[in-house]
UniProtKB/TrEMBL annotation:
Pfam families: CHGN (PF05679). The chain crosses the membrane at residues 20-41. It comes from Daphnia pulex. The lineage of its organism: Eukaryota, Metazoa, Ecdysozoa, Arthropoda, Crustacea. One of its GO terms (biological process) is chondroitin sulfate proteoglycan biosynthetic process. Gene3D superfamilies: 3.90.550.50, Spore Coat Polysaccharide Biosynthesis Protein SpsA, Chain A (3.90.550.10). This is Hexosyltransferase. One of its GO terms (molecular function) is glucuronosyl-N-acetylgalactosaminyl-proteoglycan 4-beta-N-acetylgalactosaminyltransferase activity. Belongs to the chondroitin N-acetylgalactosaminyltransferase family. PANTHER family: CHONDROITIN SYNTHASE, HEXOSYLTRANSFERASE. InterPro entries: Chond_GalNAc, CS_glycosyltransferase, Nucleotide-diphossugar_trans. It is a single-pass type II membrane protein.
Length: 771
């Protein structure tokens, strides 16, 4: 074109020039407007300066600040409104009121429909014109309106909660006291809806809402802006989700979204497990870290979670006390080093006066700082053995050098690691980073019965920095830990009845043959019950042996002579004879029925192979609580002495002197035996009594135990009783008289009574013929 070539500007260059032009144009306009506004303010202030002097303006500001501070001081911290329904008043709402609801740092109210039902035992507010229909949009908005109109000037914070959430009120109080309530705040776990709802909730890209399940918190400023506009918000609903609409209303009238913070997922925890949430193991990071836990659909699990967290709180307070004691001990040690000999002389005189010139008390090892060198062995036999821990346990403490990690050890290690990680992340917010546990690579542990458990753990961690330059990378660290044992504390149970120490025990003894063993049992009974004249009744249910040499007549003669010797004492002995084939369940049911109809007997089921002391009587009376608790003691069962056990051996009629000496070579604790039990007659009938359809010996005890555990009104108490010993006797498993399940249990019991692993290993080494 006439020899000229026209080259156009690139688009990106033109955009840059247009932005610069717009910027300078806006700057000039801003300067002009600012100068006009300044002159206007100067002229207006000159006109009114005679009305408010600088001193008066300062006084007015001070008065406003003082009035605000007085109002804040007069306000309580928190009002919690729990949204519930009539059908949950007696279950979920009651569970909330009896657990965390009683510890709210302020006030708790339950909100439900406008009905005529009475709920005198709970602080329930019935909202006019509101029903229990779902979704509860109107109930949620009207609850906030009621809270504002009746308590708007009395509390700093207001919380909307469901009846299936658990709140750690102590931690919530600390959390809220660190936030300024005089500013508009809307606190909770921010949500934008599930993936299927994206674009369907009428939310902009920068809008959110606080999820209703884990709870949402309003400052009094936020509530004062939202509550007067509730009716307007109810007229403009876009979805059926009440928490979404509530968040929209807060955004519209308070001008703030729900807190955008990653931390809120941990503070206000919502489990995706639904109805199964918090029904399994509770030792998880979420349960320990969160302030609110949601959902808890069954009210029984609310009580369970509350008991667990109370236990955690008790352990934390014990540890805090231990740290104080260690600090005090360290201070005393520093004083001793500084003062030298004068300190020692002064302490000796104080010690002699306070103890009456007795021997000084030994130093409390708990006061010493944690150290793997705290224990110093005096000789080679005292050296503690370290066990190697990885995917299995390698140890010299058992016959099997490599074994699987059992549940108690796994749980203990997990507890220790969790506490370590909580300590590491205690200041994570201030430091802008968090460290997560990834995997235990390997470790060592050893047990000191006096001090506790020592650990050396190789941990694989993940370092996450979320402030400044974000980064994530793996970290490997060694942890040297000592888990100290506390001092043993004993206290009486508040459940024990006052008259339990004088309750008559009704022993029920099923018997078929075994005259000599029965005589040994009666000799023990004579020493423990007859000679001290205990309030005891022995009911012997005798069955024939179906053999030619049946000793039933000798047994009856022996019992008759025993009854004549004990006539006039508190001890009673009764014999009930049955003619059919032996059945332990039927025998126990017969013994139970021998009580007077109006007598709620304290029953104790016993076997003829058992020997016991007077302490067992005390434990039966203490641990068996009418209407509350059934006692299934764990007995010590002797091994077969033919394998060289260090026993003098009990004869058929006499008891060995060392029968109550307990160690691993003499026997084992019968953790899976439930045949010895003490229970009140009314509680036995509550679980359905004995299952008399079970014949022979075995399985009836497990059946009773399962039904007792399943009874919601009864607790099962189990504990080893060192004064309740099962004397060894050969076990015969008759295939013709036992079912397949009974035979399997019998064979397993017989195998378990041979010897300990260590003794069987020694026996094999001593008797094995090498080729």
């Amino acid at each position: 074109m006439n020899g000229f070539h026209v080259k156009s500007f690139p688009k990106r260059v033109w955009n840059r020039w247009s932005l610069l032009v717009k910027f300078f144009f806006g700057l000039i306009v801003g300067i002009i407007l600012a100068s006009q506004l300044q002159s206007l303010l100067i002229s207006s202030s000159a006109c009114v300066s005679y009305k408010l002097s600088p001193v008066h303006r300062k006084l007015k500001v001070n008065n406003i600040q003082e009035r605000t501070e007085v109002e804040a001081r007069n306000r309580q911290l928190l009002l919690v409104g729990v949204m519930t329904a009539d059908k949950y008043i007696g279950t979920r709402a009651k569970a909330v009121y009896e657990t965390w609801g009683s510890q709210v740092p302020g006030k708790l109210l339950f909100f439900t429909s406008d009905s005529q039902n009475t709920t005198d035992d709970l602080p329930v507010v019935r909202l006019k014109g509101v029903d229990d229909s779902y979704p509860p949009q109107k109930k949620s908005f009207m609850m906030l309106k009621y809270m504002y109109e009746n308590y708007g000037d009395k509390f700093e914070w207001f919380m909307r909660a469901d009846d299936d959430v658990f709140i750690k009120t102590e931690r919530l109080e600390i959390f809220l006291k660190n936030i300024n309530s005089s500013q508009p705040r809307f606190i909770g776990q921010a949500g934008k809806g599930i993936a299927q709802e994206f674009g369907l909730l009428s939310l902009e890209y920068d809008e959110n809402y606080c999820m209703g399940g884990p709870g949402m918190i309003f400052s009094h400023v936020t509530l004062s802006r939202v509550a007067p506009n509730v009716k307007d918000c109810l007229k403009n609903l876009y979805t059926t989700h009440e928490d979404v609409e509530l968040g929209r209303c807060v955004q519209r009238f308070a001008g703030i979204p729900c807190t955008w913070s990653y931390e809120m997922q941990n503070i206000f925890h919502h489990s995706s497990s639904g109805r199964t949430a918090f029904t399994g193991p509770l030792k998880s990071r979420e349960v320990h870290r969160a302030i609110t836990l949601h959902p808890i659909k069954e009210h029984a699990h609310m009580y369970r979670l509350n008991n667990f967290l109370q236990g955690v709180s008790i352990r934390e307070k014990i540890y805090d006390g231990l740290k104080i004691r260690r600090e005090m001990a360290n201070s005393v040690e520093q004083l001793r080093k500084r003062l030298g000999p004068s300190w020692e002389q002064q302490q000796d005189s104080i010690q002699l006066e306070s103890l009456g010139k007795k021997k000084k008390k030994s130093k409390n090892l708990l006061c010493l700082a944690p150290s793997l060198n705290k224990f110093l062995p005096e000789d080679e036999s005292d050296i503690l053995t370290w066990n190697f821990l990885a995917r299995s346990v390698d140890s010299t403490e058992t016959v099997n050098p490599r074994r699987a990690i059992d549940a108690p050890l796994r749980e203990g290690v997990e507890d220790v690691i969790r506490e370590v990680m909580e300590g590491i992340n205690a200041m994570s917010k201030e430091r802008g980073r968090v460290i997560d546990f990834k995997e235990l690579l390997y470790g060592y542990y050893r047990l000191n019965p006096r001090l506790g458990v020592d650990y050396i753990l190789d941990l694989l961690l993940v370092y996450k920095k979320y402030r400044g330059r974000k980064m994530i990378f793996p970290v490997r660290r060694h942890a040297y830990l000592q888990q100290a044992f506390g001092s043993l504390q004993l206290r009486p149970s508040p459940l024990v009845a006052r008259d339990s120490s004088t309750s008559r025990i009704h022993f029920i003894l099923p018997l078929s043959g075994r005259l000599a063993i029965f005589q040994r049992f009666m000799n023990n009974f004579q020493r423990v019950c007859v000679e001290p004249d205990e309030r005891v009744r022995l009911v012997i249910v005798l069955y024939p042996t179906m053999e030619t040499n049946d000793p039933s007549d000798e047994i009856k003669s022996f019992v008759g002579a025993f009854q004549r010797r004990t006539k006039g004492r508190q001890v009673e002995v009764e014999l009930i004879e049955r003619k059919e084939a032996f059945a332990r369940a039927a025998a126990l049911e017969t013994g139970k029925s021998s009580c007077q109809p109006d007598d709620d007997c304290l029953l104790a089921f016993i076997d003829v192979d058992m020997v016991f002391t007077e302490k067992t009587l005390d434990r039966i009376r203490s641990h068996t609580i009418r209407g509350r608790q059934v006692y299934f003691p764990i007995v010590f069962s002797q091994f077969d002495p033919s394998f060289g056990a260090p026993l003098t051996g009990s004869s058929d009629t006499e008891i060995a002197d060392d029968v109550f000496e307990i160690d691993d070579d003499r026997g084992y604790w019968r953790f899976y035996g439930f045949g010895i039990v003490s229970v009140y007659r009314s509680d036995l009938e509550r679980v359905g009594g004995m299952n008399t359809s079970i014949h022979g010996w075995g399985q009836e005890d497990v059946d009773l135990y399962d039904r007792t555990v399943a009874c919601p009104d009864l607790a099962v108490f189990r504990a080893p009783d060192p004064d309740l010993v099962h004397v060894f006797h050969p076990i015969a498993c008759d295939d013709s008289k036992l079912t397949e399940k009974q035979k399997k249990m019998c064979v397993g019991t017989r195998a378990g009574t041979y010897a300990s692993q260590q003794r069987l290993a020694r026996y094999w080494i001593e008797h094995h013929a090498y080729g």
